[in-house]
Design goal:
Length: 492
């Protein structure tokens, strides 16, 4: 028989699953963790935690079965910048993806030096807080002693693959978010730009997300409980692995990932590049994507739950459902960590407009869910305006476990969403990548569609009005938000 191990390193936890040959989840486990925010706009994490949690998860799950682990798949948040020395020892905490907004000066400088049109044309995306290249440049500028020692560049998935096999690789999808280091047309590193930015850092070999990069070494086997020689698959960034887990790989597919952040991946037939979104290569060879991401979504609901002292999410969801569409006249901008697409403003800030003493925590929670949905609609409009087509929407991630959030997003956007049998996301997708690399697994057989969420037509007009106000609120308050962001940096 045999089983597949899939492990995903996320922003708030690392998840692992053990899956059989038919795609049934036999066992799962989670290790929660926290990111570090040492300064406003900085979001970091110790890469050592990624390995420690993988080891713990692997040993726990392997102990639950007598079946042989046939292959291992890995996944992780990204694009991240984890710099290590020549022996692969991390030199500083990893700088995380677009939620870390420290490299604004480097973004401006590289854009000025290389040319915004050239960067977009060659790489597929404008430089933003999502791009890995400027974050490397930030380390060179602010921590030259670290930069001088750096010889390797990792992301969570590639770091786990390295620790398991010794292979220094990066998948093409992750590399395509290392702007401006990667040539999205030629699908290879662009040495004229990469070498000056990376200095002595060696460029990892490029592979596709379903490539076997090596076998588990004897040292890794002793640590993890995995059999020595077990094939390990490269994997990729979590959002793309989530798309894999629900079969959103055909042209016209749109994946919505409900997590700490909200992510959108639209598979496109032809390459599209616009400054407001990220044009990337896909997880699999021959595929391309137009992607967007909100800096916060589930992070806001978690923050709000802690703030109002609610004992559990079901209570808040019930109160939000009772609040009703429009949250009794509240409107929230979900820019609590700046915003990624399509606003691309690291100094944007969260705003709650319309508050009165009559509003309840249920109203606030409803407004937070609607803010996420309004942000999704903004991204969807940007995708369509760029020429992307949306023929099928598939929802995935922890936020799909309840009905209300999904329903609010469908009501606000007018989109019907498919929900598959397994929505745990990237860890399951990582297990599927392992199966795909070692056999002929079919995701539709593994993970069929079990329900669809349809928009409520009677709410469309009201949400259209709210969306108009939402689009007006950001430009009307941006100057104030920027001034407050500057004050926040000054008080750090």
């Amino acid at each position: 028989m045999g089983v597949f191990l899939g492990v995903d390193v996320g922003t708030s936890s690392t998840k692992g699953v053990l899956v059989d040959l038919a795609g049934t989840v036999l066992a799962s486990t989670v290790r929660e963790h926290e990111v570090s925010r040492p300064h406003p706009g900085w979001v970091e994490m110790d890469a050592g935690v990624w390995w420690d949690e993988f080891v713990s998860i692997s040993r726990e799950l392997v102990a639950t079965t007598d079946e042989l682990v046939v292959a291992v798949g890995v996944s992780g948040m990204g694009p991240c910048v984890a710099l290590a020395d020549g022996d692969g020892v991390p030199l500083r905490p990893a700088i995380l993806y677009g939620v870390d907004t420290r490299a604004t000066e480097q973004i401006a400088r590289l854009t000025r030096e290389l040319g915004s049109d050239e960067i977009l044309s060659r790489g597929g995306s404008a430089l933003s807080t999502q791009a890995a290249g400027p974050k490397v440049a930030w380390v060179a500028d602010h921590e030259p002693e670290v930069f001088e020692k750096a010889r390797k560049l990792f992301m969570p998935a590639s770091w786990l693959a390295y620790r398991l096999t010794g292979a220094y690789v990066l998948d093409h999808q992750s590399a395509s978010q290392c702007s401006p280091l990667y040539d999205s047309i030629a699908q290879e590193w662009y040495e004229p730009w990469a070498r000056p930015i990376l200095g002595g850092i060696e460029l990892p070999a490029l592979v596709w997300a379903d490539a076997v990069v090596g076998g588990v070494t004897s040292v890794a086997a002793a640590a993890t409980g995995l059999p020595e020689g077990t094939p390990v698959v490269s994997g990729t960034i979590d959002a793309w692995t989530e798309a894999v887990s629900v079969g959103a790989q055909e042209a016209g597919d749109l994946m919505l990932m409900y997590g700490t952040t909200m992510f959108l991946v639209n598979t496109i037939a032809e390459r599209i590049t616009i400054p407001e979104l990220w044009g990337t290569v896909g997880a699999f060879e021959g595929t391309r994507n137009l992607a967007g991401g909100m800096a916060t979504s589930g992070a806001i609901t978690g923050w709000l739950r802690a703030l109002v002292g609610s004992p559990d999410y079901p209570s808040l969801l019930a109160e939000a459902a009772a609040s009703g569409a429009g949250a009794h006249g509240l409107l929230m901008l979900p820019y609590f960590a700046g915003e990624r697409t399509p606003v691309a403003d690291p100094d944007a800030r969260g705003i709650i407009a319309g508050l009165t003493v009559e509003h309840t925590r249920g109203d606030l929670y409803r407004a937070a869910l609607e803010a996420t949905a309004l942000g999704v609609r903004h991204n969807v409009e940007a995708i369509r305006a760029a020429g992307g087509t949306i023929e099928r929407v598939v929802a995935v991630g922890g936020g799909t476990q309840g009905d209300l959030w999904l329903q609010v997003v469908s009501d606000v956007t007018g989109l019907t969403q498919e929900v598959r049998a397994v929505t745990i996301g990237a860890s399951y997708g990582a297990a599927f990548l392992a199966a795909r690399a070692t056999g002929t697994a079919d995701i539709d057989a593994w993970n069929p569609v079990v329900r669809r969420v349809e928009p409520e037509a009677s709410l469309a007009a009201g949400y259209d009005e709210l969306y108009t106000l939402y689009r007006e609120l950001y430009p009307a308050t941006a100057a104030v938000a920027h001034a407050l962001a500057e004050r926040q940096r000054g008080s750090a």
